[in-house]
Amino acid sequence: MNFGSVRRPTGTVRCRYCSTSLVATPGERAIQCMQCNGVTRIRRNHRIPQPMPMAPPRYFPHSRGNKRAVLIGISYAGKRRGYNQLDGPINDVKFMRHLLCQRFGFPGDCIMMLSDDQRDPFKLPTKDNIRMAMQWLVQGCCYGDSLVFHFSGMGAQVCDDDGDEVDGYDEAICPMDSFEKGPILDDEINEVMVRPLVHGVKLHAIVDACHSATVLDLPFLCRIPRPGTCHWEDHRPLSGTCKGTSGGQATLISGYSDGKSNTSMTPDSYASVGAMTHSFIKAVECEPHGVTYGRLLTAMKAIMLNSGGNCNLQGPIGGMPIRKIANFSGVQEPTLSSSEMFDIYRKPFVM
């Protein structure tokens, strides 16, 4: 994809790359072009004021247990001109739900699933629904809460316009209506899901998408030059903008990728799962008595290198064998970022 920024009168934006005239949705920070797939930044001083937020739909779970999760899978069926739909995201959320319930004791009625195979409009992963789901996840969080956010789909990069990114780019996730309303930028994800986390609350995000290594905009990124070692990079913006929590802990497990898709084609008689999601679930399942963050990342990397496109997950997909891995995000190895630095080889991974 191509990315850039451009100044235009309020209400319309011209695609930086193909000059198509695009209608800017009120309050959005970027817009994606259906003609060329390019993402164009909307300058801060040209944004249309955001309308009053909508009330959460009745579908949203009323249960407020101390274990809650939002799981999002998007295939973009019929949405991307010139591209096939993604294989894997719909199954990814089903397997993640199975893992959370069976392994970590998450109540089923405290897990919200958004996927583009749903008929209920409130269960579709639109930009508005994803925003409200993120708010629902952290709203009223308190000491002892364990929260999970999982996204499987497309990611994007957009030129940074406020100087808070080390590499000069904002990362983003693409909802199913990204071509109409644009992606959700890491600045917004950080503001909505990270900053409200109070002391004693932990959030784990697992993101299976390209350009997702720092999509929560967390202040510290962990590098593992070789097994048994780690190096934390300080990604706090020089501007002093706060990207941390209100005392809680946020951790992102995602993947490094160069944005080039490496999708495994699968026969119709088989179903597939995403490479990042698959490696995460297998690494957890292979350690029935628990695992540290360091061991988890090491196991995930080994699974990615050795799976060769074959999958033997057991789980919730009835009547269809899961035998293939679809690396739609082009992930080459797992990455870890966090709101705080810690010893990844000593700290247990617990959801």
TrEMBL record:
GO terms for cellular component: cytoplasm. Residues 67-339 form the Peptidase C14 caspase domain. One of its GO terms (molecular function) is cysteine-type endopeptidase activity. One of its GO terms (biological process) is proteolysis. Gene3D superfamilies: 3.40.50.12660. Belongs to the peptidase C14B family. PANTHER family: ICE-LIKE PROTEASE P20 DOMAIN CONTAINING PROTEIN, EXPRESSED, METACASPASE-4. This is Peptidase C14 caspase domain-containing protein. It comes from Eleusine coracana subsp. coracana. The lineage of its organism: Eukaryota, Viridiplantae, Streptophyta, Embryophyta, Tracheophyta. The gene is gn00036.
